[in-house]
Amino acid sequence: MASNGNSSTTEASTSDDPKQELAAQIDELLNTLSNKFSGVSSEIFAKMDEMSRRLDNLENQLKANTENSSGST
Fold this sequence. Notes:
Oligomer: single chain
Region (Disordered): 1-20
GO molecular function: transcription corepressor activity
Structural class: mainly alpha
Number of helices: 1
Family: Belongs to the HSBP1 family.
Distance between the termini: 108 Å
Pfam family, one: HSBP1
Strand content: under 5%
Order of helices and strands: H
Shape: rod-shaped
InterPro entries: HS1-bd
Number of strands: 0
Radius of gyration: 31 Å
Helix content: over 70%
């Protein structure tokens, strides 16, 4: 009978083991996804900043061209 008690304890610990492994794998997956999302988010913000700078430059050039053409007419 003592072996039945030991086997149930062993079964309980082995049934917790896969749950812990699954939880660890899910945590790792979530961390990986979070890191990738952060990286993509940073890239998007960097590209948006670059686009904003380029649009500002274009706007300034258009204003300068408009002032030059109205001033020379």
